[in-house]
Hints:
The protein has one domain: Alpha-Beta Barrel (TIM Barrel), CATH 3.20.20. The chain has helices spanning 2-13, 92-105, 119-128, 159-169, 187-196, 234-247, 262-271, 281-284, 288-302, and strands at residues 20-22, 25-27, 31-33, 56-57, 74-77, 80-83, 110-114, 136-142, 176-179, 201-204, 208-210, 226-229, 252-256, 275-278. The relative contact order is 0.16. Mean pLDDT is 92; it is low at 1-13 and 146-151. The chain has 318 residues and is an alpha/beta fold. It contains 9 helices and 14 strands. The radius of gyration is 18 Å and the shape is globular. A hairpin with a 2-residue loop joins strand 1 and strand 2 (25-27). The strands form 3 sheets. The chain has an 8-stranded parallel sheet. It has a 4-stranded antiparallel sheet with strand order 5-6-12-11, with no helix packed on it.
Amino acid sequence: MTTRRLRDTKSSRWSGLGDVCVGGTTLKNPIMTASGTAGHGVELAPYMPLDALGGVVVKSLYHTEWPGNPAPRVHLTPSGMINAVGLQGPGVTRWLEEELPQLIEHDATVIASIWGRSVSDYAQAAEMLRGVPSNVVALEVNLSCPNLEGRSSIFAHDPALSAEVIAASKVSGLPVWAKLSANTDRIVDIASAVSDAGASAVTLINTMLGMQITAQGKPSLGNGGGGVSGPAIHPIAVRAIYDVASAHPNLDIIGVGGIATGEDVIEMLMAGAKAVQVGTATFADPRAAHKILHQAARQLHRQGVVRWSDIVAIAHRQ
């Protein structure tokens, strides 16, 4: 009982800035974990109260179990990391049976995430999530998987294919968020296409394609190249958010990419995001999302900001 009261106190302490309405749902605050950085379940629960976050975005799920890429899968970079995990996962059925009940027990607000190699893969995974418990408030559709083979045919680089995937994923009955890639000069066009296809929001951005070569002349990752994340890509994410918000001011945006401080959160909100996701910072400190929530809230309180929404897209009003 003591622990629960402590969590409730922490959750409500920062509610003075109000709820956040984004992507067809309402969150208690704009801070979420990023898909792929918090596991499929409650692995971060020992370090922070999951119910204090706006949402927990689980690692992307294939409709069936998926083995991922060969090791090594993760390596440090000068300002972040590079990974080629390959979306290893238990599949939707096992997640529903084994991981989701634990998230519900922790009263977490859950955003499911799916990926696929074909439109039918996405549709199948989305169909399996139809009728999930109410703790699951949205479905993030990972359209950009740069750590897989076939990089030339990433869905998030093609407006028509992206739209087709989003339309197929609506079968889940959940609000659909489209996670896009900045490894293309067509990100504004892709955002328009997925919005027209029924996406309630876009998540900007996924990792950037990269590679490391060791002193022995070999790639640092078992898969060769991978996705670069961390502070190095933060300015790229801010630019993507700003550009999409400029072109589509009525489209909800979730910002992700190199968030390490409360100031990073505020910058993304000012660029046009309504909510954000904390990812790579979690590997350095599993409490990162909770700490960053408090940092951002404290700074806005000091500035006299009343609601999170008061600073959204303020850069477009200057």
